[in-house]
Amino acid sequence: MAAVDPTSVERGRRAARTGQASDVPAWLQGLPVSWWVVGVILLFMPVVANDFILFQIFGWGFILGMIALSLMFLGGYGGMVSLAQMSIAALAGYMIAILGSSGVQTISLNWPWWLAIPVAIFIAAAFATMIGALAVRTEGIYTIMITLAIAAAFFYFTRQNYTIFNGYTGFANVVPPDLFGINWRQSVPFYYLSLACAVIAYCVVVYVSRSPFGLALQGVRDNPRRMAALGFNVFAHRVFAYTFAGAIAAVAGILMAWQNAQISPGTAGLPAVIDILVIAVVGGMKRPIGPFIGALIYVVLRTFAPDILLTLGLSGDRFKLLIGLGFLAIVYWSPDGVLGLWEHWRARRAKAGDPLTRGGDAQ
Q: Does residue 108 sit in helix, strand or coil?
């Protein structure tokens, strides 16, 4: 008779006691009910929301959230701050316009989408690797200044180079391919496309953060000397973190070019570079869901703040004043962003004995 594996027996007993399938990941089993509710709401959002909300609010929010998520991965798990994530995303957008099709036929190569997309992501990830190889050799303010200098150099290079990047004009008519007979730039298809990419990026970051590489990266963040003494290659872990984060930003950059139907140097301008940092900090740098919360807040303020200012008799061009004041208020009251405020509120309610706050924490 074949021997019985005690581990499998215990796994089966545990599954029988909990009523859950043993092949379901533990992190998926532990999701609170509120997360499933949010998932159902997002899935059926096109039923109740108009095209503007789907395309401009949620679509743009998912894209910015993915770029900020790449920064959150570097900062939250690696202890590194990069101001070049928007530049990486813009490079991927440029590559999809150059390698694919656009309104500038003299430059675009008209490659098929199944070849142009992975090559664009690869080039952007290689650019992120180069940035990481330079940035990880420094610490603190020097890392920030190096990445900021690279972002500024990329902006001015794209604006002044006409042979490859078409200079100040950039590329117009950069649209997604028509697959399965669907126009993916319409509001509902693009909403589901950006939502799917955001969910995949979130799940991948959660998985990687709990993988051996992610745990080692967090160890490097907390005590690099001890990790080096244990035999870990600190430099390689940090550089690969830039590569991984760059791939996420590259996917968002392609979506960004498709949503705007164009890519130009202004996409990677210094204001946009700083906006990504603001989004990540406002949402929270400790959990992957934070950047998406910060992106949604930012997009809503950017969309409706000018109207609010005009109603108050102020210039609509000062909408970033509200964004800046909100940023200062959140950072002052909670260094962990909006998620920190939420956790502080839950902690106070829990002390008061409120059973509604005993659910699972945000992932």
A: coil
Report whether pLDDT(363) > 70.
no
Cα 194 to Cα 197: distance, rounded to the nearest angstrom: 5
Tally Cβ neighbours within 10 Å of residue 155: 21
- Cα separation values, 314 from 154, 299, 300, 309, 346, Å: 35, 20, 19, 5, 37
- Higher confidence at residue 310 or residue 125? 125
* Neighbouring-strand partners of residue 172: 262
As beta bridge partners, residue 146 has none
Q: Give 214-227 as a 3 state SS string.
A: HHHHHHHHHCHHHH
3-state SS assignment for residue 262: strand
Nearest one of 89, 92, 93 to 121, comparing CA atoms: 92
pTM of the model: 0.86
Number of other residues whose CB lies within 10 A of the CB of residue 7: 8
Task: Give backbone dihedrals phi and psi of 263, rounded to 5 degrees, phi first.
Answer: -145, 130
Q: Could you give the CA distance from residue 216 to residue 240 in angstroms, rounded to a whole number?
A: 12
List residues bridging with 262 in a β-sheet: 172
CB burial of residue 95 (10 Å; 0-12, 13-18, 19+): buried
Helices then strands, each counted (H, E), the chain: 18, 2
Written as six digits, the tokens of 316 are: 């609509």
Paired tokens of 307: 């109207």
Q: 300-324: string of b/e by CB count within 10 Å (b at 16+)?
A: ebbbebbeebeeeeeeeeebbebbe
The tokens of 311 are what?
A: 């109603």
Banded model confidence at residue 354, pLDDT cuts 50, 70, 90: low
Identify the three-state secondary structure at position 237: helix
For 93, which DSSP code? H
Q: Which two tokens stand for residue 141?
A: 């303010």
Residues 6+ apart with CB under 8 A from 16: none
Find the Cα–Cα–Cα–Cα dihedral 45, 51, 56, 60, rounded to 10°. 40
| Residue 262 near residue 173 (C-beta atoms within 8 A) | yes
Neighbouring CB atoms inside 10 A of 231's CB total 6
pLDDT tens per residue, range 165-201: 999 999 999 999 988 889 999 999 999 999 999 999 9
CA distance 282 to 257: 25
